[in-house]
Structure of SIS domain-containing protein:
Amino acid sequence: MNTTEKVIFEQFPYWEKAIGSNSAADRAELLVFVGCGTSFNLALALAAYANMAGRKAIAVPGAEWQNRPSAFWPEWRNTHVVALSRSGETTETVAAAKASRAAGAFVTAITVEPESSLAKNCDRMVAAETHPDEGIVMTVSASLMVLLGLQMIGQKVPASVVNSARQLASALDAALPGIIADRSHFVFLGGGPLFGVALEGALKLMEMSQIMTQAFHPLEYRHGPISLVDGKTVAVMLYSSDQREAETKLVGELREKGAVVIGVGGPGDLELAVDVDLSLAGLVVLPALQVLGERAAQARQIDTVSPRHLTKVVTL
Ligand code: F1P
């Protein structure tokens, strides 16, 4: 077992420590979730969750918020910027936090590095302890930042999510070998908060296995991308409880065209039960998506401990 795989399966005690560790933010301004790479995908999911919880929120990549905030929100000074970064050292995210504070915005940092530059350039820090062996590919820290972010927007995270996530990851792992063999085109589909999570599933798979991968809102997939579906396709459908019927119909069409479908929370060639509702699904499915990336890499004999062209932190 390599370190990446070990860390994915050993992440759950860190979830247990993070549950209940931070309270909801009381600030009422527009929430701007900012991050790069995985952290931006998590920002997208958290912004959707914040809106669903009655807040006002957007997600913006670090460099975009640093360089052209007015393209996203005209009154950007009057915002509460929530900067997500595992390392707390990503150049664009740190610069976005500094620029926001200089302009008078309130900045919360969500990180696992309490001594980092980001932690030193925020008004409030929300941090968790992560697995000491986590490597270049972000796994446990991604899950932890979503957990902390959900708590920050007032979502109660029950201790039971740990088992839900662990079981889902194990169930997918047990069923995977027959499902992904000889398949080279992967697509992740998820709506609402699960869109950011679908993007994260795709990014994880790309980083770990170098397989060309895409992510879409489910019903967007018919509008062009469906032309790529054939017998080499694996579609991962992250079902949302409120759009299940429409998503099930789409899955039927994908299967007719030759795709194998991993149904996370609904029908597919593989049907995996998700025992939480949409408000927690974005957290609970993350470890399973990390397992998928690792197993796809192993099937291609690709080392996820030293992934090609990647570094743990991007500094410019
Ligand atoms: C974010 C990130 C990762 C990516 C790569 C470089 O870092 O872009 O998502 O996989 O390893 O860093 P961070 O700001 O969360 O530390």
Remarks:
- The chain has two domains: 3-152, 161-299.
- Residues 161-180 form the longest helix (20 residues).
